[in-house]
Each structure stands twice: as structure tokens, then as C-alpha cells.
Amino acid sequence: MPALPSLGGLRDRSRRRNTTAGQPGIAPIPVPVSAYVVDCGVYVEGKRLPGRWTHAEAVEEVRRRREGFVWIGLHEPDEEQIQSIAEIFGLHELAVEDAVHAHQRPKLERYDENLFMVLKTVRYVDHDSPDTANEIVETGEIMAFLGRDFVVTVRHGNHSGLAVVRRELETDPERLAVGPAAVLWAISDHIVDNYLEVTENIEDDIDEMEGKVFAPRGRVSAEQIYLLKREVLELRRAVMPLALPLRRLAEGYTPMVPEEVRSYFRDVDDHLTTVSERVASYDELLNTLVDATLAKITLQQNTDMRKITSWAAIVAVPTAVAGIYGMNFDNMPETHWKYGYPMVIAAILVLCLILYRIFRRNEWL
């Protein structure tokens, strides 16, 4: 059921509490569950029943028919608003708490006859260049409650919508007729496909960064490579922990996932393995780029030090001569000679030129 735009402001106001000293607390404005419901559909024999449904009406219709299932999607619900849904569908309180507060690792848990799965979503943030970007990967979360006759999805983040997944499934009634497990597979497949797309974009960024690092006069800040490495690690935290839940679903962890769906989960697991290998290789490549950048910085510093040392040696010649003849003693060689000053200047220039030629031949200058 699409959320009503006018209820968006109610969400923010419902979170506020009046805590001004001396002023009695004001009860929060009650927000209907529909403010957090993105869509609610009833599916029988793989086809969506017409009409708009509340979560209570939908589950009542399915259980009256004794067939089909309900798929309800929520977006960042409050604890109070999700409580009525949890009571109707029999969701475990610990799983509900995780779904509300988010920031969970990908995992799969079983509570009585229900499953609770957490998946991390990722989005590639467009930017002009990887060496000027502040963010490359944006993450979100999708929590899925799976029961005998329902799927409840809780979404956190603005980039992880499931409308596309729902539309694709609704065009394939045969697959949707399998039940809630087909929805969980479609969500997993959609998220892992996004992983593949993000890794391809990150690979382009790493290739561009690599070209700049190894360019003859390329200058790349080590901080930017560390930023890119941080984004790869963020992607790794989303990808790596998901391998075990997918493998368990593919191997028959629960009878709620029928055999015909397990093969699809095995395919998703294969795709995830590809993503994991790519992410691991990116991490190693970035370590190499960091080492190469630090080596270039060290080499440049050594070159600069050699130049500074060379010029210091050249400057030391006139400094030494000027220091000696600046002592103003009468009995010093050639102090009263007519050509003494020009000869000293000429000797200084010759010695400096000799030193300059020596340093240039040794590639210090």
C-alpha cells in the first residue's frame, strides 16, 4: 500500500518528546502503521489479488482461504508502529528489535517456525574522480521475516527499494506460486546482482587510480587510496558475512525453503562467491597501490634531499671563502694585491662549476 505523502511529517513529529523543564510532557502524535507501509499485497496461486489491504485484512484473507501469502514492505518503521504487525504475524521480539534499530551484520536466524534474515544493500555513489571523492559506496539494510503464509520486509536506506523485485515477481506467477521462499530468493538475488554492479564500478575506479599511481609524473595522495580502501572494506563487510546464510538456505536449513527454490539460492551463492573474490582482490591491489605510493613518496624525498645536499655543498664554497677573507687580518695572502678580489671571485665560480658538473654527472641535480 503506497505511503501517503501527508503522513511523512507525522513520522518526524511522532519521534519528538517535549522535555522542557517545568512543562508537562506532550503525548506523541499517533502515526498509523500505513505511514510506514510501502506496499501490501495478497498473493494466491502466484497472482496478486486486486484491491488495497491493511496488514490485518491481508493476513485474515490468506488464512481464511488457507492458501497464498502476504507480502508487506515497511520503510524504517518505529518500534511502536511495527509492534502491531509483530503481534499479528507472531514475530519474535529480538528479531523485531534488530529490524527497528538496524546496523546489523548479514545473518540468518530461526525463531520457532519463522525465519529472520538480514541483508546489506549497497549503492555506488557517482563521482568525477576516485582521487577527489569523499564517498564511493553507500550502504543500507533489508530485513526479511519469513513465515508459512507471509513475508515482511523492513528496509533501511533510500536506495534499497524493492518495487522492481515485486514487479518482476508479479510478472512470473509460476515462480511466485512457490510461496514466501521465492520472495526471499528474489530479494537475495537482486541484492547480490547490485553487488556485482558495484564491484564493476569500483574496479574502474581502482584501474584509474592505478594508472595515476604508476604514471611517470603522477601524484596521488595516499589518503585517497586509503579512502578507496575504506569503501572496499565497507563493501566487504556487506558481502562476506552473507555467504553462510545463503549456503544454509541452499543446503536445506529449513523446510520453509522447498527444493525447487534451493537451487536458485545455490545460484545466488555462486554469484556471491564471485563478488567475494573480486572484493578480496581489490583489497590486495589497494595494499599494493599504497605501498607503491609510499615508495614514490620516499623516492621523491630522497631526490629532494640529494638536490638540497648538492646545492648546500655548492653554496658552502663561497661561504667558506667569504668567511675566511671576512676576518679582516692584515697579513693574509693577496689582500693588498690589485687583482686579488677578481681572482677570488673567479676561483669561487670555478669551484662551484666543478661541483655542479660532478653532481649533474651523478644525477643529483
From TrEMBL:
One GO CC term on file: plasma membrane
Cited SUPFAM superfamilies: CorA soluble domain-like, Magnesium transport protein CorA, transmembrane region
Record membrane topology: Multi-pass membrane protein
Region (Disordered): 1-25
Keywords: Cell membrane, Ion transport, Magnesium, Membrane, Transmembrane, Transmembrane helix, Transport
CDD domains recorded: MtCorA-like
Recorded GO MF terms: cobalt ion binding; cobalt ion transmembrane transporter activity; magnesium ion binding; magnesium ion transmembrane transporter activity
Domain of life: Bacteria
Gene3D superfamilies xrefs: CorA soluble domain-like, Magnesium transport protein CorA, transmembrane region
Reactions accelerated catalytically: Mg(2+)(in) = Mg(2+)(out)
Signal peptide: none
InterPro entries in the cross-refs: CorA_cytoplasmic_dom, CorA_TM1_TM2, Mg/Co-transport_prot_CorA, MgTranspt_CorA/ZnTranspt_ZntB
Membrane-spanning residues: 308-327, 339-359
Localization, UniProt: Cell membrane; Membrane
Protein's job: Mediates influx of magnesium ions. Alternates between open and closed states. Activated by low cytoplasmic Mg(2+) levels. Inactive when cytoplasmic Mg(2+) levels are high.
Family membership noted in the UniProt record: Belongs to the CorA metal ion transporter (MIT) (TC 1.A.35) family.
Protein's UniProt name: Magnesium transport protein CorA
Organism: Goodfellowiella coeruleoviolacea
